[in-house]
Input
Amino acid sequence: MLIDLKQYVKNQRLVSLYELSSRFNLDPEIMRSMLDLLIRKGQIRPRNKTNNCGSKCFKCNPLSTELYEWIS
Output
């Protein structure tokens, strides 16, 4: 599954935790553990949300604003 996750992030370039959890049908905490492994390997990095996102309306699902980016 880690290989599939790596390939998916590589193809998408930028994905949210919500998208990944939905795509792989996994709990967000389990997905974070898998993402942490790819972060430690230097293949992906967490990406900050935009300055305005989450600061005014608070209507976004927090999982959709937690982004990860392919860097390898």
Summary: The first helix runs from residue 2 to 12. The CA atoms of residues 33 and 56 lie 29 Å apart.
